[in-house]
Protein 1
Amino acid sequence: MTDIPRSHPRYASLVARERVAEGVRRGYTSTQGLIAQGRGECFDYLIGERTTVAALEAIRAAAAMLLLAKRPALSVNGNVAALAAEEMVALAEALKIPLEVNLFHRSEERVKKIADLLRENGATKVLGEWPDAAVPGLDHARALATKGGIYDADVVLIPLEDGDRCEALVAMGKKVIAIDLNPLSRTAKKATVSIVDNIVRAVPLLTEQVRMLSGTPRAELEAMVREYDNQRVLREAVGEIQEHLKGQTEKSEE
Ligand code: PTJ
């Protein structure tokens, strides 16, 4: 990996870029993942590379939803593996559930490499290498899922997901939590809870919330989920981008 000096003003962003490039070199991230990363970087820049108030609200609702779930599932693709393998393992550990590798550009080799990476990072149970079910409405390889994992989950976390699959999971009656920097994406619009934040920042915050709320009475968690309004939170996410951009243009006029 290129050695990036910590003093570089775009340090975090450049490290993330290197990690995705490294994922491609090692064969667990798809080449298309580089394009997805570029799109993410662009939105992160517009957001101001910070976790917004809207994202924090979504993270809290997502934590409550995961804690209330009978069978929560966590999906991992090639970009997620590159950017947040260790953090996803910590989240799975906090919830005591397995992770499932679920790919858009599926190859068995990539699935195995990602599963191995998660295990190297301490995952005790990884699903996805032997899928035994299919999400209805999607063409073959992307539809593959595992019983006892994503296929029969009631709540699924899908970071950096494609809109079609998000929609197909919602159509199966699941509650879907998305992590997507683009508040205008189909995934963000279709998900039950959309965390408009960088996965690198969002997953550790989500794990922290899961730990903090783990002793909270169910009735309180249920109220948090009931009161959460994803459309409003998405509007607020867009509003926070607008405010940030306004601040930036005013600064450059000074
Ligand atoms: O590993 P695979 O085969 O499953 O493929 C994974 C990718 C990500 C390539 C695939 O799912 C894909 O093509 O995704 P999209 O349609 O490009 O959507 C990815 C979404 O994630 C976009 O809306 C990006 O803005 C967003 N995104 C990119 N990087 C980040 C991000 N969101 C949060 N954190 C990021 N670091």
Note: The mean pLDDT is 96.
Protein 2
Amino acid sequence: MIYVGIVGYGTIGSGVYEVLGTNKDYIAKRAGEEVAVKYICDLRDFPGDPAEKLITHDFNDIVNDPEVKVVVETMGGLHPAYEFVKKALESGKSVCSSNKELVAEYGAELLALAKSKNLNFLFEASVGGGIPIIRPLNQALTSDEIVEIRGILNGTTNYILTKMSKEGESFEEALKGAQDLGYAERNPEADVEGFDPCRKIAILTSLAYGKQVDFEDIHTEGITKISKEDIIYAGAMNAAIKLLGSSRLENGSVYAQVSPIMVDTDHPLYGVNDVYNAIFLRGESLGEVMFYGKGAGKLPTASAVAADVVDAIKHKGTNIITIWDKEKIKLGDFGEMTNTFFVRVPAGEKEKARELFDIRREINAPAIDGEFAFLTSAMKEKDFEEKAAKLNVISRIRTAF
Ligand code: HSE
């Protein structure tokens, strides 16, 4: 019997308890041993909960118990999650975490600590919820240089954008729905302002290039400025607005960004709706691959954590090598990044916009008056900013077409 301690009994932690219980026999076969939860550490009490008797308020109960071999960290946030995970590894226990904030900030350090102790620090659920993406990057895609990662990495914002565009819900209504379904972060600003997908693209890019990408260095925009009118224009172009996290290797530099992007029906990310996430990777020899599944929510995310528990047990005494050095990658200057833009300006600025921009296409949305909307050809971010500053831009959204 292998004992597990869970730290944090919120949506994901309780999901892990449920998955380890419901799939007990299946997991025992896969892990080669029976797996049972011995402690659940949380500040709160859970009267009447099936796991009530396992609750402890003292993390030391877990670290001091030699029977506990694997710690599941599902508390989220940086502190005290970092201190707990470090202590667990130092006490000889492998750790499985769903905590993207922790992984983005301390991933390299915790991996090195796990390695030095012949243990494992696993974090499949930190990106893409239930989608396997960390393991493929670390194991299946190691023979090829990854030249592009582009993905819908946040379930909450994809749910909101889908509800706004397909069901006409307001931003607030859709956000409330995402919160009720357990998709959103405790502070949903992390979702809607793009901080959550920013951490996720930082993790994926760090793994792809084997060095630290600091999320603070990534240009990040959320979806709070997307209006009903933007969605109408997207519809007029047979496109959808998605919040994408992306990084690409260009002339030896890695460029990264998180921002809303319009994708048209030809793009593989167009049909990724609701809470679904998808990560699209391009390798030099491999070409393109896409990973798709539920990017948030209790059981999909918990199933990824539980699979890490199985992996940690299967690799007892062996460190699964993960290349992620603390040395930092200096990202390419965002101003030099090339993008194409959809732009709306007041109708009176039509001629000025035509003079300033190399306009690829003018866009009409019959329901909207008094505006001039267009698509630019590919241009550097800094050139766009310089020209856009000369107009009263109503909105601008990057496009993938
Ligand atoms: N709030 C996150 C999301 C949870 O909506 O994607 C999963 O990381």
Note: The mean pLDDT is 97.
